[in-house]
Specification:
mainly alpha, Non-ribosomal Peptide Synthetase Peptidyl Carrier Protein, Chain A, 2 domains, two-stranded antiparallel sheet, two-stranded antiparallel ribbon, 7% strand, elongated
């Protein structure tokens, strides 16, 4: 059983998938930092010193200054500011994947165009090329079947 497991894990596609997941997680952390530390502060500054991570609704009658304060008090919250940050992170990741796929597709061979539909057929008697709709061969004057 150990040998089978080892053979399974050492197959190329399993290792490729593991590397892809590890790189994806690291890329996600970079994008999170980009959104939270680089993009959102200037956007918040432009909107009047707004911190999106602290946009929330406490499901309580008490007022809390931050999401952390509400969670520390054990109050349920709807942290829609965190959701906004997550949506922006997703859009950046989706755009990066789009650019990656677009650049990879430039190097892949283009699919061959389908050949055009035939417009002629060969006469079953003289073997000369004639139009598909012909009912009589213009070369040997043979009567052709409708098929």
């Amino acid at each position: 059983m150990w040998k089978e497991f080892k053979a399974f894990v050492m197959r190329g596609n399993v290792l490729d998938m593991a590397v892809g997941i590890i790189i994806g997680v690291a890329f996600g952390k970079v994008v999170s930092s980009l959104v939270n530390d680089v993009l959102m502060p200037p956007i918040g500054k432009l909107l009047g010193n707004v911190d999106f991570s602290n946009f929330f609704v406490a499901l309580s009658t008490q007022h809390f200054a931050t999401v952390a304060d509400a969670k520390k008090a054990g109050v349920a919250t709807i942290a829609y500011g965190t959701f906004i940050n997550t949506v922006i992170e997703f859009l950046i990741v989706a755009f990066a994947v789009f650019l990656l796929i677009k650049s990879v597709n430039r190097f892949l061979p283009k699919p061959a165009a389908a050949p055009p539909a035939p417009t002629t057929k060969d006469c079953s008697y003289c073997k000369m090329s004639i139009p598909l709709a012909a009912t009589r061969c213009p070369h040997c004057t043979s009567q052709l079947s409708a098929a």
